[in-house]
Amino acid sequence: MSRLFSCANPDDREAGITIAAESVKDGGLVVLPTDTLYGLGVDAFNNEAVSKLLATKRRGPDMPVPVLVGSWSTIRGLVREYSTYTRLLVEAFWPGGLSIVVPQAPSLPWNLGNTQGTVMLRMPLHPVAISLLQKTGPMAVSSANISGEPPATNIAAAQAQLGEAVDVYLDGGECPVGTPSTIVDVSTGQVRILREGAVPRERIAAALSLQPDQIG
Fold this sequence. Notes:
This protein has helices at about 10-25, 45-55, 85-95, 125-135, 155-160, 200-205; strands at about 5, 30, 40-45, 65-70, 100-105, 120, 140-145, 170, 180-185, 190-195. It is α/β, with parallel strands linked by helices. A ten-stranded mixed sheet has the order 1-8-2-3-7-4-6-5-9-10, with helices on both faces. Helix 1 (about 10-25) runs parallel beside helix 4. The protein starts with a strand and ends in a 9-residue tail after the last helix. InterPro entries: DHBP_synth_RibB-like_a/b_dom, Sua5-like_dom, TC-AMP_synthase_SUA5.
């Protein structure tokens, strides 16, 4: 049976984060709040759990699962190279609504889907998400919805779609941003926006000392 914790109360929040972290380490599915949308997450290095996440969302490995981290420093162990573009984007927008596609470190034992040697990383701007990530380490996290259905901006919407497939729900209230993150791909050495969302193109260009039309 799923367990629900309201994070509005400090004691319930601490208990919920602790139990959610234990569930993640045991291969369970957790729904957590972020600044943009609610996420469905598992241990990024537990390939069986990642497969369960994809099955729960009813989608295949052709749409790889992003990874959330709880600190700037975590990214350095996950990437093949920490490029200038990556550093500037991290410093300008993390924690926040920007996901960055980078070349992944070749030795990582995870299987996030058909990544073609890359990984999408983000540090969310939400205290519950950060607290959980600091206990679990990197988590594979996708939006908390069935593929093709509207993403959840509150816990009720996530529960309505995912039900008892989830082990722990952390209720952090309505997501403050409520729109998906912007996705920027710097894996080839060029800058491409794959999805414009919470962070506009103009702010990305300014952070990289580029003109907006220099970004693909």
